[in-house]
């Protein structure tokens, strides 16, 4: 089984597909209404500047959520008041689960055409 290492604020968290709970990730995206900005299928955001999340790498999603949680004034943080508000209450496991769920979705992401 492949393992990915996700570096989060509290240290490195090892996770594999067995450790991530895709169903819980789906529930969390509904709870926080992620589709309201990123689109119902997470492929068609309401604004072209918002990222498509479906199919994105799970570790990238977890890292991005952690960066929003840290905030823009911290090292490797991201500054966006809306995303920061959603990310603040998330635990490391929540971020891993959300990443696993979004990664599992059919994607329109392409590397090149």
TrEMBL record:
Residues 1-19 form the signal peptide. Pfam families: Cytochrom_C (PF00034). Keywords: Electron transport, Heme, Iron, Metal-binding, Signal, Transport. Residues 20-106 form the Cytochrome c domain. InterPro entries: Cyt_c-like_dom, Cyt_c-like_dom_sf, Cytochrome_c_Oxidase_Subunit. PANTHER family: CBB3-TYPE CYTOCHROME C OXIDASE SUBUNIT FIXP (PTHR33751), CYTOCHROME C4 (PTHR33751:SF9). This is C-type cytochrome. It comes from Massilia suwonensis.
């Amino acid at each position: 089984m492949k393992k990915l290492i996700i570096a989060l604020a509290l240290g490195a968290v090892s996770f594999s597909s067995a450790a991530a709970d895709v169903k819980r990730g789906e529930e969390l995206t509904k709870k926080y209404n992620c589709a309201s900005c990123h689109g119902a299928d997470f492929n068609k955001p309401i604004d072209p500047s918002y990222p498509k999340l479906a199919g994105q790498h799970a570790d990238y999603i977890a890292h991005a959520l952690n960066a929003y949680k840290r905030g823009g004034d911290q090292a490797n943080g991201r500054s966006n008041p809306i995303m920061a508000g959603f990310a603040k209450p998330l635990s490391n496991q929540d971020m891993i689960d959300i990443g696993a769920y979004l990664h599992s979705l059919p994607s329109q992401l392409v590397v090149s055409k």
